[in-house]
Design goal:
This protein has about 160 residues and is mainly α. It is built from six helices and no strands. Helix content is about 60%, strand content about 0%. It comes from Porites lobata.
Length: about 160
């Protein structure tokens, strides 16, 4: 009788891809799908076809550079930095996970320097344009502060008696 061991198992590429996919959380899968749809929709509007299996880093850098500059919300508003970060992470996961499993890193590789500079610029511009510096209320006038202190010290005195 032949002994069954892990040495005899032979998982095919499809089985290995499924196993890897099972390890990913459902929320991550949904976020990836949403981010890729956002990128695909942007590409479709420009009649661009991007095949993540064979696009070169130089071509992808150029596309991402333009994408980060132009992508907006459904209502035409600039995307928040966290939304843009989520989309970039989704594209990165799509590229590096099975079945594509490319070794390029759009977050760190030097080929993506200009795309990442644009990404950073859009995040900083959003903060500048959409979140102006907060306006603070004026401080409490000295006379009102004395009245408040009196009110609270009276309250403390009445609790101690």
């Amino acid at each position: 009788m032949e002994e069954i061991s892990s040495q005899n198992s032979d998982l095919g590429q499809e089985d290995l891809d499924k196993l890897e996919a099972k390890g990913q959380a459902e929320n991550t899968k949904r976020a990836t799908s949403w981010g890729i749809k956002k990128f695909d929709k942007w590409c479709d509007k420009r009649k661009l076809k991007v095949d993540f299996n064979c696009v070169t880093p130089v071509e992808l850098n150029e596309l991402l550079w333009k994408f980060y500059a132009e992508v907006k919300s459904e209502k035409g508003q600039p995307l928040t930095p966290s939304t843009l970060t989520g989309i970039r992470a989704a594209i990165h996961r799509q590229l590096t996970s099975a079945p594509i499993s490319r070794s390029m890193n759009i977050l760190q590789d030097s080929e993506f320097l200009s795309a990442n500079k644009m990404f950073d610029a859009k995040c900083k511009l959003y903060t500048k344009e959409m979140n102006p510096k907060p306006t603070h209320k004026s401080s409490i006038a000295a006379g009102d502060m004395l009245r408040l202190r009196g009110y609270f010290s009276e309250g403390l005195d009445s609790n101690n008696s």
